[in-house]
Automatic annotation (TrEMBL), chains A, B:
Belongs to the LysR transcriptional regulatory family. Coiled coil: none annotated. One of its GO terms (molecular function) is DNA binding. Residues 5-62 form the HTH lysR-type domain. It holds the Pfam family LysR_substrate. This is LysR family transcriptional regulator. Keywords: DNA-binding, Transcription, Transcription regulation. InterPro entries: LysR_HTH_N, LysR_subst-bd, WH-like_DNA-bd_sf, WH_DNA-bd_sf. The lineage of its organism: Bacteria, Pseudomonadati, Pseudomonadota, Gammaproteobacteria, Alteromonadales. Gene3D superfamilies: Periplasmic binding protein-like II, Winged helix-like DNA-binding domain superfamily/Winged helix DNA-binding domain. It comes from Idiomarina xiamenensis 10-D-4.
Amino acid sequence: MSKLPSLKNLSYLLALHQHQNFNRAAQACHVSQSTLSSGIQNLEEQLECQLIERDHKSFLFTAMGEQVVEQARQIITSAEEMLHYAQSQGNQMEGPLRLGCIPTIGPFLLGKLSKRIQEKYPKLQLNIAEDTTANLLQALRNGELDVLILALPMDIQGNQQWVLGRDPFKLVMHKSLAATINEPVDYDQLPDRSIFLLEKEHCLTGHAVAACQLSDSSKINPFTATNLHSLVQMADARLGATFIPQMAIDQGILKDTDLVPLQPSGREASRDIGLVYRATTNRRQTFRKFAEEIADLLPENTLK
Amino acid sequence: MSKLPSLKNLSYLLALHQHQNFNRAAQACHVSQSTLSSGIQNLEEQLECQLIERDHKSFLFTAMGEQVVEQARQIITSAEEMLHYAQSQGNQMEGPLRLGCIPTIGPFLLGKLSKRIQEKYPKLQLNIAEDTTANLLQALRNGELDVLILALPMDIQGNQQWVLGRDPFKLVMHKSLAATINEPVDYDQLPDRSIFLLEKEHCLTGHAVAACQLSDSSKINPFTATNLHSLVQMADARLGATFIPQMAIDQGILKDTDLVPLQPSGREASRDIGLVYRATTNRRQTFRKFAEEIADLLPENTLK
DNA sequence: TACAACAATCGAATTAACCAATCAGGACGG
DNA sequence: CCGTCCTGATTGGTTAATTCGATTGTTGTA
């Protein structure tokens, strides 16, 4: 049996992959460039395969190198999790928890969530990042984040998820317009191009269109907004209607407007809110307790 | 950030956990007892927690120690998988594959399977263990086995599975008895205590009773057999009837007997055959290809 | 042509890993 | 009660591995 590679050398490899430069990677690891260089060579010998192609000036990770980086990342993350678990004496709700959240959920949930966590688990230190689903999944994969709050259904790749709750969509429009509309809303009652949506980077757009059975694309205005507050302002200016999730409404996004929420078409006009985490984690129990806290704050808790 | 524990020390811990004795563990690791002893102490310092309680004569793993062992096992298994993956240059179907299988499947599948694997993937070296479901799951958990072929449905704990195929049950009895019976068999046609089953350690018993809707337990003879061949012999001696899986019949278990297979009651009188593996593995692709080979050999391939 | 940037290599100094031998406590037997 | 055996811990010296600063060789650029 050949000797296992050392975690130290694996971490050198990760740093090199991240910085794409021996000097900067060495700095990040607090070692000299020569140490890191020989560490990598050492690793290549132990694994008996070439991880990076050198062309005298620079280098490139080989396909195998990339694969090894992937696996090394998982191993080191596991080791870190173990270290933290042991050092906190098994107290699961302690230490840093790096949370990623999409922008159509974050502003309407994270305030309440932080407060609740702070009260109930003061030793749990929540670090929050807000980004698109795709970027968050990448960060999760890279071990930069621990858990994500996403809207489902979604391709979460190799990760695992719990469905925390349902968040109904409402079709929001000016009260003067709403007076002429029957619920649940048949979109034929609306003029063409009268429905405004978010930029397509936001998964909310697709979820709303699918869940609310808005099949007639001529009703959609080609202008897209960058966030929910813009949508609300546009609707309040009587430009048209838009889909707003219940949790945003609960947080008062319609306050000081003349907008009213109507029930859209679709038997289940809602999105699911889920917690996504790496399949390889061993902090499932922490994440589970965390999931329960989140689910309690959602319009409809479906976490069993 | 504190220093990560070394894989070497973690492996010492695993050996100690396995052997429950410093000397034997040290031997297994090919190091001296003092090396292993200080390795463990080192680990405890790094993790800043007590892993074993010493009472001058012997020792005991603390609860935390047991937890750390669990996680260490996963980390080391991952590292071994990475090492092997790199050394085989990414060739997935190469090197050892440790397979566990239950005794009501093994004898009727593994012969054909070994032959097929040997032909198609000659570099894949199949190591086979046969045991009960519970023991196999324990071995999988301990990293002693890589994949299990089990009968489903089954509580596979934290592991993952693919359903490979269906294996119908047949009610087997002597042809003289069968002549008086209508298919699918209504058990009322059979005398009390005329159905023989395996010992309850075998999951086949429960699966057959459930799938074939044998609700009347008075039909079951309290004597239990240790393997399918015994059941066949007993049925052939006209002691009664028994459930035999199709794959055993296909492999000729009824040859040279006067037994005939009848269709039992139950809409889906069958068990599922599944491949079970650790959720934390990174050899999924290997296992998947392997799964396809197995599924091809089953009475009814349901692997999508 | 000189220079800056980069990764590899070298040699010395430091550190850690390791082992054999020994120690100390408890169990067992005579 | 004393000696022996078995346990894991400790010690001290040796060896092997790690690390660093300095240097080398190559490449691209001013």
